[in-house]
């Protein structure tokens, strides 16, 4: 009997449907700290030559003034996307002087909290809102945690593909096109939650960190050297409980059984007071210190490994966009920066993600119960802290299973999706990368996390020394071939236009910031009643 996966793969392999499978888009957001030639956090402002962080479409800042974020255009092939990312890096290096881009997800040795400068976006109400939001993050999570960098992978399938699937469902639900697409993306997200531990094993690259990063917090890490802490079998400390977490969010688990439920949970969180934040208030000595005293200041504060997304319109909030027009794409947020890749991610990793996400989109994806959700969370947590431990067991559907066996079985299930993608291209790049990932399951020393620990030993077991060496190596790579004249001119235009746009925003008449925040907080979020359990 054909499964949903085999039935859908066969449908999309049909000649008349192959064009819709070739559609879809891939985009990458890469975060990276600016550091000086000694590997210390840069103390300079965001370079004006790069444009305005508030309004530039491809070069901005994340939390800190020194935490750059590069955003590629959405492309139909990940190879093209990564080529765009490479071009942005080359342009940035042409404007950075002697500064370097930090090569790791975990930050360099950081100065005192007071000396980490929060990103500044100018004096417009929107710019001030973004800055105050980050002040709130500093209060809630500390500045060091906000200096962690990652790779965000934005993925969509052609909207026509969802219509093809809907028209060929054996037991169709009576849903409109928008609702069907949203439900299908939520099903993809549920399967991602089931299986994303595998990505942490295959691509996790942060088994160690600078000793000062934890700022005296209790931990169970081991001392690798005077300046470095680690766990011997960890894959991604960035994605462990040492990374993005706090008590307020610990009880926030908006499940993805349907969009209404997801939206309702986030809407509650941005409207629900949280006593420790209320004690701090929103202002101190007349200065805004956070946008609200609720569990979340805004919905983007929710830290998740994957999110449903919709491109927002001017003045629109993310939840409003999802409610009004449904899910447009998904954002995978758990990928570490690969310190061995100059742009932080390889084309091969992108190919694997494409096959993995297509599998998640096409395979059967029943609702996740709270008990099942806890099991998936535990598997993920176990993998990030001890994924390479010999004999490590994860909790499978029918009891404990060796991680290596569970991973090999999962790759075999993904293989037909990889082969279908290859059939569109007329080559074997997706199947080839699948075989390379299978080799990592057979030999953990091939994983990026193991390779990082090996490289650390070659640098005196110093995270700082390894990070600086890789940053210098990547800088030499980019500086050896500056951007083409055409690429440089295009990004120069974007920089000039972004500066002009910010200046116009700041010169325009506006309401008081207090009124602006009040209007933002009172903007019409979705208050629909969840229609799923």
Automatic annotation (TrEMBL):
This is Glutamate--cysteine ligase. It comes from the Bacteria. Its EC number is 6.3.2.2. Pathway: Sulfur metabolism; glutathione biosynthesis; glutathione from L-cysteine and L-glutamate: step 1/2. Residues 10-381 form the Glutamate--cysteine ligase domain. GO terms for molecular function: ATP binding; glutamate-cysteine ligase activity; metal ion binding. Gene3D superfamilies: 3.30.590.20. InterPro entries: Gln_synth/guanido_kin_cat_dom (IPR014746), Glu_cys_ligase (IPR007370), Glut_cys_ligase (IPR006334). GO terms for biological process: glutathione biosynthetic process. Belongs to the glutamate--cysteine ligase type 1 family. Type 1 subfamily. It catalyses: L-cysteine + L-glutamate + ATP = gamma-L-glutamyl-L-cysteine + ADP + phosphate + H(+).
